[in-house]
Specification:
By secondary structure, the chain is mainly α. The protein has one domain. It is globular.
């Protein structure tokens, strides 16, 4: 699933954010950043995916 999210973060950043967090403020920010420019949307999506995975790992330990 992580690979799918990373690929979709590059091709369609809001999809990656939706797959990671569902409908949230992060999705709205991702849509706005992608509309302003594709690269800011990619950066935000990759950052959000990474931070979400870090939080999930912290909860396990």
């Amino acid at each position: 699933m992580k690979f799918l999210r990373l690929v979709s973060a590059i091709l369609l950043p809001p999809l990656a954010v939706f797959l990671t967090t569902g409908i949230s403020t992060g999705l709205i920010v991702s849509v706005l950043l992608t509309a302003l420019g594709w690269v800011p949307g990619i950066i935000h999506a990759l950052w959000l995916i990474q931070k979400t995975e870090e939080r999930q790992r912290e909860q396990v330990y």
